[in-house]
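REQUEST ID: PR-0412
SUBMITTED BY: lab tech R.K.
PRIORITY: routine
TASK: structure prediction, single protein chain
INPUT:
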Amino acid sequence: MTAGIRQRVMEFSPSWAAAPAPSEDRPPRPALMVATAVSLGAALGQYGVSGWNMRHLLFTAGGFALLAAFASRLLPPGTWRAAHGLPATVLLRGLGSGVFFTLEAYVPLLLATERDAPPMVIDLAFTGAAVAWAGSSLVQGRLLEHCPRHRLVVAGALVQAVAVALAVAGTLPSTPAYTAASAMAVAAVGMGMYAPSLTVLSLTHSPPGCQGYASSAMQTTQNLGQMMVLGVSSALFNACLGAGSTDAVGYGAAFGLLLAPCALATVLATRTGCA
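STATUS: complete
OUTPUT:
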């Protein structure tokens, strides 16, 4: 979870003190204390969403407060409002990663606990996702190299939305377990188009000598996106169970929530394109 934050810290600040003022053409260097606060906020948030009582709610509130206060200092200015160029590119990396890794966390859990799927089905879901991601990346890099990258981002987000729909359908007892398992492979196809295209766009938007800044920001927002999207989905899942809903309803709600970042990424993808 903190790999991207540690990478950014090593790259930009070797001490606890705030870094010297940067030149105009270089991004600001955050202090190590900022990265520590973000890591602590992520940890508190992850623990907080694991339950549904006052203690967990307090941990969740504290974690998200730290993230709200400090996370923006690790990212390009304008990231949270999806400003055109690098900020929007960085934000979309977090949204896409959040959707995929939430599916990767909940689909196997659904298959094992609610659908009583055999281990082979779960194994095929993970293997299929790995192969699908690699194959999709190969296709977009070799056969779609002349397609504008922001359009591939749109395509990837739409494919992820299809995967979310499959996951929701997989919660229904009338559908076979393979329906939910296929959601991981379909989502991986989307990520194979989505993630490499955003990486290329981030480097395109980076001024000379600042490519490392862009790469570390992408890694940071990927980790934050995973934590935040998975955290909100987990909170909704636990809220449904706490209200007396069945597990299937909780899974359906957690999956359905993922349509929001998919839709947001589709709408904002044009802001990642080159002017």
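NOTES: The domain at 79-272 is CATH 1.20.1250.20 (Growth Hormone; Chain: A;).
REVIEWED BY: pending
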